[in-house]
Amino acid sequence: MKNDESYLGDVQDVSGTTVSIAMSIKSLTGFVYIDGQGYRAGQIGSFVRIPIGFDNLFGIVSQVGASAVPENRKDFSEGNRWMTIQLIGEGPRNGSFQRGLSQYPTIGDKVHLVSERELKGIYGQPDKPYFVRLGHISNAESIPALVDVNKLITRHSAVVGTTGSGKSTTVASLMNALSDTKNYPAARIVMLDIHGEYGQALKERANIFKISAGSRGMASEKKLLLPFWALSFEELCLVAFGEFGNEKDKNIVMERVYQYKLKSLIKHPRKGVTKDTLSVDSPVPFSLHDLWLELFIDTFGTYHNPKGRVGDPRSNLAYELGADGKELKGDPYRGIPPTFKSVVTDAGEDKINWLPGLLGLGKQVLLLGTKLRIPRYNFIFSPDHFLPASDGKIPTDVDELLKDWLGSDNPISILDLSGVPADTLQTTIGVMLRLIYDAIFWARDLSQGGRHRPLLIVMEEAHIYLNDATKNMASSIVQRIVKEGRKYGIGAMIVSQRPSEIDPTVLSQCGTFFALRLTNASDRSHIASAMSDNLDGLTGMLPILRTGEAIILGESVKLPMRTTIEPPPKDRRPDSQDPIVYDEVSLDETESPGGWGIKNETNPRYDEIVEAWRAQDPKVSKVVKAKK
To answer: Which keywords does this chain's UniProt record carry (predicted)?
Structure first.
């Protein structure tokens, strides 16, 4: 019999893609030698082939031993000499491998172990530019782990793994491979970096946008800006006004916003929108600060009402006087409200009354005023050169924002959200993703649209804003991206340490999984249910994967593979390494200097802790005493 050295056993039971094999006595010796190289027979996750005519069927070992005995053979005396495999594809002998099956094995077909030489023929086309190398197959260092870029991006993907499993390093390796300008000169990637981990790792290939840009002296850092007028009305309400008590109040604000946008459009016409097509959601600049002042006056204003005087109350507002004798009219661009005199209804010449028809918007107006005064909200409400004047005129339109995010010279744009206030984080993420999606969607047939230049959106710590328990704007737009984005050239990469908390709709649309070590049973079951392949044997290996090792399976790889990810150089790794309590490595070689094994500083600088705390930035400039 040909290939006796790789023979494992015979097919005894076929149920869909699950095949049960009775193992031969020879295969039970433990080691099988093929081409002079030894292989462990029957290893979980190893590959087998079943020759049928001129074709080979390929499968993955998922069970070995007594648990693999078919139900209808439990009474037989074959003992534990059984193996269960999951069929995954086929290919002509000495030909190319293809996913899917056109035929099934029958009882008595021979089953063989797949050698490293055969695996190279299945896995490898390393000379093809649309394959990127991430490392090597764990049990075959000579076989590179290749991922098809076409299917990785357009069919979406997920990188999942417990904290400390090497998830961030894997993402950094992926970004380094995908941003190689030699192979992909027009690569386009947007990363949502929740904790500011990737700026240092990818600074040579990325533009970094953050609220406190420039605090580290990095030339690649730019200010993170999100003009309020580019938001839809619902988004603006969530960010600026909060919840409304009733529809009447909400409709009043909606009408005011529309009128401000209409006046702006009449004064400064803009291509693509006219008075007839303008809506409250149109991205037309207007002065939110002037609107806030108007709403404040209409909510809290008082006016002088002397006897016999008739006229517009708003032309005779009752402002308090400051120490300099001037009326305290406030400053809308600094969020300082006007101060009105109290109501005086006693008989006399100078009566002071409330303005007629006061609005019930006290809570909403006060909230917006507070946000206008807090500098940490300036990236939305005072966005530098995107800030409109009172008449709606702006120095720079939103096309410059899209050019920064989507069209810079560097292939990666990192949106560092570590400084975004927690109460607006989910809404901010949702708005950013909606702006990007709308731009790519409507520009799908243009040169910078997604069909001509696809976009990959990487969402770090996705469980924070894609939680299945809460429905928010970010979750809604991501669902839309994973369902429809493929048609318009938008790909999503979901990165999470708790996949069980992510909306199943999002995970189920991911065509490729990079599954690192997962110790939580609910996380593993969530991943297993989302995977298109029936590979319980492989998902059962997730708790025992080594750090930096991943099982890659799905549409972007020919076969599921246990892969050792090649990490980036030490100076290009994410800022997410675990602190080392006691390190035997010298200070010159360690990645994490410090720990309990090193003598403490003579004069610890706790003032630097307070400085970083107040600045809300761990990379503040250090205060160093001048040496004499």
So the answer is: ATP-binding, DNA-binding, Helicase, Hydrolase, Isomerase, Nucleotide-binding
